[in-house]
Amino acid sequence: MFLARALPGQSRSFLARVIGRGTVRVDGVAARPSFLLRAGSIVRLTVPEPPRSGPAAEEIPLTFLHVDAVLAAVDKPAGMVVHPAKGNWKGTLAGALKWHLEGGGAGLSTAGGPTRPGIVHRLDRDTSGVIVVARTEEAHHRLARQFERRTVEKTYLAITQGQPQLDRDEISLPIGVHPYQREKMAVRRDHSTSREAVTRYEVIERFRAGALVRVTPRTGRTHQIRVHLAAIGCPVLCDGLYSGRTVIEPGFLGLPPGPPLLARQALHAARLALDHPATGARMQFEAPLPADMEGMLAALRAAPPRSV
User: Fold this and answer.
1) Fewer Cβ neighbours under 10 Å: the N or C end of the chain?
2) Residue 190 catalytic?
3) What is the value of pTM for the model shown?
């Protein structure tokens, strides 16, 4: 009620959305819709930047795993933002897709809005690997339904900082917005932003300072794998938000000085399987582990044993 009175030009649905995104804070803490204000409280609202008309086509190299008239699959490099947003209007996957796929035959679906041409799902900026895009409106809706119904099979590879206690397990912990860091998510129970989240993992290889794990999320919450692995005490290696490290130096493993071994979160979308939106045939797309993660694995294997 306070925001509705303070901002009479904004609809209640808009205000509900910004509260749900954690952008309304009372005395520095993300507010719930039913939050009761006290005299002297400071309310801060960060209004989302209005959407632009759409990304400009940019000549950026892309590795395509598959392209046909209605669907494309791309091996997204680490460091590339999927679609434009505040602070990231250039160098996006969406802009690169417009360069490579628009013009001539089929272009890109507009069902996701002007800033998200073809984008059906997303990967974090520093997560590499398989992402599929829609080239027609019908394909977009059919692909989106598969993600909603959880019939899309997603497999990730992650290098963890520390080792999971079990060789395989299922993590079922609800995820919501972080109570005081807006860029993070957190395991939260009984909160208005919390949603069911389920992640399965299997340890492939163990090292002195970590492990290589295969991860299959059953739900698709923001930062889900990163939050869940951190919750069991083995965050994704070099994950600045959840592990506390933004770069891995050789000294971290007891190796001689040299260039950094890794400078982004060690998470890769290795495989994605879904039904083709036009033919219904089951399709599988795979992206090889990128060089930086391969190099990190080699360093982990070469690391000397911890002295006693």
Assistant:
1) C
2) no
3) 0.82
